[in-house]
Amino acid sequence: MVSIHDVSPRFEAQVDALAERLARHVGEANFAMLVIPDHWRGAPIAGNAAFAARLRGWADQGIEMFLHGWSHKDETPATEGLAAIKGKHMTAGEGEFLNLPQAEALARMRDGRALVEDTIGRPVAGFIAPAWLYGDGAHAAMRELGFALAEDHMKVWRPASGEVLAKGPVITWASRSKPRIASSLFAASLGRMALPFTQTIRVAVHPGDTTVPALLTSIDKTLARFVRTHQPSRYAALGGAA
Questions:
Q1: What is the pLDDT of residue 121?
Q2: Rounded distance, CA 198 to CA 155, Å?
């Protein structure tokens, strides 16, 4: 299963390039898009008729659409404890749902889902938090709103029941710095050797990947390796998810 993160008017050209690249490996409908309603509160989908039309066209094409937060910006950063460590080391100020209280998480999820579903004309496939980081408030809000699917770095599950549908690390890349680029290239090469023995493989790409040729080469190598042993599939195929 393959996904494009951070789908937003801000990154339309990069999403186009990634969608074309992924389609060459897995087909034009066998990947998902994770949609941000208003990236860093500076790129709203609302009022952008041209991008809304693109989004609906992608959904009509068969691409699964997940809600991916509201702004993708952590506006309630923790200052101590495990949450502070995650917020500092696992993302660059983008763990939006890591520390949100339930009421605020609920409001953002509810409003985001309504906006995306009104745009694409069908239900979203699920909710995936920015940077795959969830706090207690986010988990409670997902259960209350009845999202069909969610995922983090290590699994895909049903929020309502907690049933785990797939296990294993997601292969992804980082473009923020040379050390992160190098470490993600190493992790992807390791994944190409170790993960073919797992039942379900997840691969996630980001708009920033398009700025680093070495990352694009690694993405191509990774997808080409896995399509030899695994069938490109949709998230909805997991456990008969709707």
A1: 98
A2: 13
- Entry pTM: 0.92
Tokens encoding 32: 């998902």
One-letter amino acid for residue 74 of the chain: D
Question: Facing residues of 166 across strands?
Answer: 156
Do the domain assignments include residue 110? yes
Is residue 176 a contact partner of residue 167, using CB atoms and an 8 Å limit? no
C-alpha dihedral over 74, 76, 77, 79, to 10 degrees? Answer: 180
Range of the domain at 139: 2-18+26-167+231-240
Residue 89: give its domain's CATH number: 3.20.20.370
Cα(184)–Cα(92) distance, integer angstroms: 16
- H/E segment holding residue 151: strand 150-151
**What is the total count of domains within the chain?**
1
